[in-house]
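[Automated response] Your request has been received and processed.

Submitted sequence:
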Amino acid sequence: MMVGKVTSVFGDDVNTDDIIPAPYLIRGQDPAYFGPYAFERYDPQFVARCKATDKNIVVAGRNFGCGSSREQAVYALQVNHVVCVIARSFPDIFYRNSLANGLTLIAVADAAGLALGDELEVDLDAGTIRNRARAAAVSFEMKEEDRRAFQQGGTVGRVRAHLEEILRARK
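Generated structure:
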């Protein structure tokens, strides 16, 4: 289970250029480089809000992460301690980039009950988001394989854990 605070609420169609503007893509390769520029033009206070807590949750409308395939958008969120994005929907390429890198994405039918400042408990096993501020819960569905991958730090984390298991067995 993860616990975090809603530090940003966005509407529909937040694209990867909103998350990390294109001019920064050619200037760096290290994932940490992208953090300070997250939402620079779209929401200039995003980075400052994220510094207030080490477990940030972003809530959004439909189609969060649309636009170009930009793995740096995932890095920009993760460097700012975003542990989960809850939205109505995600484009497949953003979902796959997040799944690979361990940024938990949860699609919900209605995120209207989740507001700025709410503290949420996200239980991937139970498929629930409990809002501590409003004593309410939202259910969600997720493929079992994706749930396990998110719990293990993404596809990269799952592969790393599997390789460690193989190496331990050989000792």
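Summary generated for your ticket: The chain has a mean pLDDT of 93. The helical segments are 16-19, 46-50, 71-79, 92-101, 144-151, 154-170.
If you did not submit this request, please reply to this message.
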